[in-house]
Amino acid sequence: MAAVFLVTLYEYSPLFYIAVVFTCFIVTTGLVLGWFGWDVPVILRNSEETQFKTRVFKKQMRQVKNPFGLEIANPSSASISTGITLTTDCLEDSLLTCYWGCSVQKLYEALQKHVYCFRISTPQALEDALYSEYLHREQYFIKKDSKEEIYCQLPKDTNIEDFGTVPRSRYPLVALLTLADEDDREIYDIISMVSVIHIPDKTYKLSCRILCQYLLPTQGQFHDLKQLYMSANNNATPPSNSSPDGESTDRSLLEKAGLSESDVEPPEESSKDCVVCQNGTVNWVLLPCRHTCLCDGCVRYFQRCPMCRQFVQESFALRSQKEQDKDKLKTL
């Protein structure tokens, strides 16, 4: 149809035909070069100009204080037969309740009940949600800021040497941290923390580690606590004590369980310098990859993470501008 129209127009008036073609050329050139201010996605547009105009959504974050801290002391010596040592660091007096052989299905049903039914703010609330689907229970009182080590072990009369082959129906250990004083639950947004811990046994000898941690706020959600991947200099990498044979064994066990190495959190390495300018302080977390590698000045120039090249969907700042100004005043 367009060709027929142009031929007819040329036969009618060659000069008018030339004027129409020239006008179309000028309009098309203007659209391509952006003369009219319209964002036309064409290949001829300057790539740098496109980067400046494309904005990555900055996620609005709300800062909350987590009163609970839990780590594994000497994970290499932990096992089902010898037990495990946990190190706690709590801002208030708390209760540590350990559930050995907790049902996987009942645990996640309990987390859903925290969202839709009742709040899991006490050990009794979790036990009601679990319907006592665990093999053994231990409870310890944790003093405020004590950072004490708690030794947990299955009683010998249980005669449990392993929890079967993977996929398993029970977690070796689930640790629940709750606030001991009821008045403290009105102060903090986080009222409890659930930690799922793997402990090696005769069947599954993957090294001891925390598989996941869930923070349970008063509003009725639960959040999976994730580690941030900080940028690191080559000379800041800590020496590894693990042997190649041990690494290959862990890798094969992870594959057997249906996990990849990316599913397991690597040791955190930190550096204060931006990976791009090597001058500004790292302050921005990129999502969903969770790499923390850019400063305030460089973050606006990137649509892809400079470390893994994944597209950045959202980002948020670790510290606000006011907090950074306060730190500068302290150093002066």
From TrEMBL:
Single annotated GO MF: zinc ion binding
Start-end of Low complexity biased regions: 233-244
Listed transmembrane segments: 15-38
Transferase in keyword set: no
Main location: endoplasmic reticulum
Biological role: Able to inhibit growth in several cell lines.
Protein name according to UniProt: Cell growth regulator with RING finger domain protein 1
Annotated source species: Myotis myotis (Greater mouse-eared bat)
